[in-house]
Structure formats: structure tokens, C-alpha cells
Amino acid sequence: PLRCTGDALRAFHTAIRSSPVNTKNQAMKEQAQGTMLKVLMSFKSSEIEQAVNSLDRNGVDLLMKYIYKGFEKPTENSSAILLQWHEKVCVWCSLGSATLRRVL
Question: d(Cα 21, Cα 3) in Å, to the nearest integer?
Fold first, then answer.
């Protein structure tokens, strides 16, 4: 179990970086999804925003894909936790859009 915030954040970044996005191997994709779901479930609600904010645009896009995949195959209490992640990603995206509008 990932109890310490630093451990969960490291596992989160490792799971994002090692995501098999370009593979056609379904078993590998499902294993990565399972790992990511375990990592996401290990975060406390108060830690989710920090994790989302630590990603760049590509990382956030990939995270959102994992969140939606998690909704497709819910486990006990996963939907409630994934909704918290989804909310923080939506906030991140809206802030990014506002920043982009100011730059343009």
C-alpha cells in the first residue's frame, strides 16, 4: 500500500511515464490500467489536486483516459474516488484554458 504522499506521487508519475500508449497488446494495457487504478485509489482526497497539478498537458490527457477507463470497470468505491480525480482534472483544464486565453 502507498501510505506516504511522496510514495503515492512517485508511483503516480511512474505509472504515467510508463503507460503503454503505443502498444496494441491488450493485456499490457489492462495491466497498466489496473496499476494506475490502484495508484489513484491510494491518494487521499486532499492530495489529488497536487498530483494533477504536477502534470503537463499530455499527462493530464493520459490521466483523463485512465479515469474514464476506470469508470468503465468500477470496483468497490472506485467511482467516488475517480469522480474526485475527474473534478480536479476539470479544474486544471479550466485554469489552463483561462491562462491560454490571457496569453492569446
Answer: 28
Query: Residue 89 is inside which H or E element, if any?
Result: helix 78-103
What DSSP character marks residue 73?
A: S
Instruction: State which amino acid sits at residue 11.
Output: A
Closest CA to 67 of 95, 50, 44, 90: 90
pLDDT in tens, 25-51: 999 999 999 999 999 999 999 999 999
Q: Label residue 49 left, alpha or beta by phi (over 0 means left) and psi (-120 to 50 means alpha).
A: alpha
The residue length of the chain stands at: 104
